[in-house]
Amino acid sequence: MYRKLISLCRGWLLGGLLGVAVTFAAIHLVTAVVLAAVLPDTAPTISGYVLPVVAGVALFILAYSHTLSSFEMLLRFGRTRRRSLGTVLAVIVTEGYALFGLSVLLTALERWAAPPLWTALAGAPGYAVGTEGRALPAPAPGAPMVEPDPNLLIVTGSFPWWAWLLIALGCAVVGIIAGALVQRLGRRAFWLLWGVWLVVILGGNLLPWSRLPSLPWLIPVVIAAVAALAVWSVWSLLRAVVRA
User: Fold this and answer.
1) Between the CA atoms of 65, 66, 68 and 69, what dihedral angle is there, to the nearest 10 degrees?
2) 3-class SS of residue 153
3) Pairing of strands 152-155, 127-130
4) pLDDT per residue as tens digits for the range 46-66
């Protein structure tokens, strides 16, 4: 049944993979236009920051959809709740590997192919790789002017590997929780989740993010809450009632 569900939902996965690929192409199209038009002395590589977020959003949508619709579909086909949940989780893990695997490959491709291409577009004689932008110190009084480096500085950066893992795991778990809530509570849970999403999007800038380091208890509390909701989601799905 695992293979059948993968085949049945391959369009969903292809949509997520396409979203990652289109984002990668858009990043480099914009960068190429800026380099050709402005001729800056610095170019950043941002795929290592953007692509895991896009892959995480896609994985959240897939996990939510599978938990809500694919799980109920398997139950209607006569599968037990335990086997249906196991199949859905296996499919979500597979799709997570595909989405984040593509993101890793495209980020590696950027590191390999982008510097010489951007150097040619910027009209620079060569390029240097660094982790910070170029900042020239102010010359001392009477000192000769320092000639700027003509090479294009490629500023590299990416989330660390453990952040990629946390994004993938977090988005998958939150998607499963959201799907389980809607499966259990129906429209009430959907509008509740929609309200939470609006609060996060519209009110995120109003939160005192600078005070977070002074609240060391906050992260363990959030992790504990998500873990508790994840356990409840499994409990709820194993006792789900599906209408024919």
Assistant:
1) 90
2) strand
3) parallel
4) 999 999 999 999 999 999 999
